TrEMBL record:
Gene3D superfamilies: HUPs. This is Universal stress protein. InterPro entries: Rossmann-like_a/b/a_fold, Universal_stress_UspA, UspA. Belongs to the universal stress protein A family. PANTHER family: STRESS RESPONSE PROTEIN NHAX, UNIVERSAL STRESS PROTEIN UP12. Residues 1-136, 153-288 form the UspA domain. It holds the Pfam family Usp.
């Protein structure tokens, strides 16, 4: 099976933005784009099954329209489309297996402007075997590129488990874009319990910061050697892992975070950092599964 960049579409402006983002990514990587629409019909999972009423013709028209517009914008790009009869989250997770990336649009919740991802997107990001990129429909007003126009990929790292899969994607994306990579690690002071109650921890923050900076440099060293032409900024911040990433998201071309797989069939879930970044980042976010 050839590997594609996949875009899941559902007729919303957010999914249309995701399809065009995925088209640019496919062209950047020199691979084909597959645009997928997933809709349940009696749980058959059969893409050739009869769809009731005008659902199937309408879905085909929508796919044909977005395919035409992407081909017009990027005439050298190979574009394919597919209809999948399944639950949206289940179908997207299944069809993405074995491909390079799955790109989806974020969907804001009415009344909660800061929450950018709907239930299907969260479910897919928590379960997919491949990296899932969530794309905003439009760049926030007033947002500027980091470094006065210099593109930047931001990656958040857990120094207890600096996952290779996360670093692989972050460095690859930075190289493909000719972008700078900003590797950030955020940490918090853990309060201590005493006879008088909770109290600020008695630790040397300067020593802790130096230790974490050394650990970050060690984690990045193999990738710096593999990608010698990629500029790297290393940053350790006191104040929490999610906030460390979100601070730089407004000017980023892409934000990359990890999602640790849960063994022993304990179910799929996003960690707290990935969940917060997906909801609040002001840039496209890639969630990468790792052991």
């Amino acid at each position: 099976m050839s590997r594609h960049i996949l875009a899941g579409v559902d007729g919303t402006p957010q999914s249309e933005a995701a399809a065009f983002w995925a088209a640019e990514e496919a062209e950047r990587r020199g691979t084909a784009l597959l645009i997928v629409h997933v809709w349940p019909w009696l749980g058959t999972g059969d893409v050739d099954a009869f769809w009731p009423g005008d659902l199937r013709p309408a879905a085909l028209r929508a796919l044909t329209d977005i395919e035409r517009r992407i081909r017009d914008a990027r005439p050298g790009l190979a574009v394919e489309t597919a209809l999948v009869g399944d639950d949206p989250a289940d179908g997207l997770v299944s069809v993405a297996r074995g491909h390079e990336l799955l790109v989806l649009g974020s969907r804001g919740l009415s009344g909660f402007a800061g929450l950018l991802v709907g239930s299907v997107g969260l479910s897919v990001a928590a379960r997919a075997d491949v990296p899932v990129v969530m794309v905003r429909a439009a760049k926030p007003a007033g947002a500027e590129e980091a470094g006065h126009g210099e593109p930047e990929v931001v990656v958040g790292l857990d120094l207890r488990h600096p996952a290779e899969e996360v670093l692989d994607l972050a460095f690859e994306e930075a190289e493909l874009r000719g972008a700078r990579l900003r590797a950030v690690h955020g940490w918090d002071l853990v309060p201590a319990w005493s006879a008088t109650g909770w109290m600020a921890p008695q630790v040397d923050t300067a020593e802790q910061e130096a230790s974490r900076k050394a650990a970050l440099a060690e984690a990045l060293a193999p990738w710096r050697a593999k990608y010698p032409d990629t500029a790297v900024v290393e940053e350790v911040r006191l104040g929490g892992a999610a906030q460390a990433v979100l601070t730089h998201s407004a000017g980023a071309a892409l934000v990359v975070v990890g999602r640790r797989d849960r063994p022993l069939g304990l179910g799929a879930r996003l960690g707290s950092v990935a969940h917060a970044v997906l909801h609040h980042a002001q840039a496209a976010v890639a969630v990468v599964s790792h052991a």
